[in-house]
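I had to read the description of the data format several times before I understood it. In essence, backbone conformation is discretised, so a fold becomes a row of integers matching the chain in length. I therefore recommend that a typical entry be quoted early in the introduction. For illustration, here is how one protein appears when written out as sequence plus structure tokens.

***
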Amino acid sequence: MLKVALLGAGRIAQVHARHIYDHPDTELFSVSDIFPEAAKNLADRFSARVLSTEEAITHPEVDIVLVATSTDTHADFSLHAARAGKAIFCEKPIDLNIERVQACVAEVKERGVPFMIGFNRRFDPNHAHLNRALRSGEIGELEHLQINSRDPSPLPDDYLLVSGGMFRDMTIHDFDMARFQLGEEPVSVSVTAAALVSPTVKAAGDVDTAVITLQTASGKIAVINNSRRSGYGYDQRIEAHGQKGCLYVQNVPTTTLVKVTEEQGTQAQKPLHFFLERYQEAFREQWKAFVAAIKEGRPVPTTADDGLKALLLAEAAVESFRTRKVVTVSL
């Protein structure tokens, strides 16, 4: 049984706690949080103990440290866990500063401990099925990938102001998905973006609406459509176009009920409302994949390098938006 120290007791930590508890090979050993009451409430739900971060990371019974705290702590906690010889699962991003991420990734590699970054969307059954279809050549060579990713509504202002901006906070998942599905690294990034939704975002110099174009050395193109607001639910669609046809991943509806009437025509259900609903299975499969890699001594499926490369693409997107130029990247 692998014992897990969970750092954080917020929304995403609660998702992880459930999957740790439900997995037959993992035990939620402890919960740590800067708010003791939050840590106690979460620990009590899953019969875990409350420890300080230091106690949790260095505890001799702990096998895995799961970092689900605020972004500014991810690198420090990951490094501390690596130095303690623990396997690490870290929510994205590792840090908002690229040099800090590079230093963290280098030391984690040197320590030789397993380190997995939380890009859960790769583990969504629909996206995984698309990836298998592309790799098996069902539509021949992939030529064009389109990713639509829109949140139902803007996040609270206090979060948006410390998030690192849309490209580092939201689009980073789409950068990872583009890399995953393309099967090649992008070599250029071009952005057209604006603040059309949130006055707070605009005042902060950030954006909430964007079209990002990536291109690989072989010429494959990926286009990412982003918005902080859709109004109709969590919009998560992918289209892959190739030599022999197209592959689509559609939104997951709240139910599969479709109503057809003479007066109103055809009415389908809206997409699931938010990421916790849409990617519930992806989070569970992600944890299963991490545990399997640890137990079998295999490399983890989403590595520290994946986290670094997605952030490098985010930085290139920021530069492209600022300069209004195509930015060359080397991953």
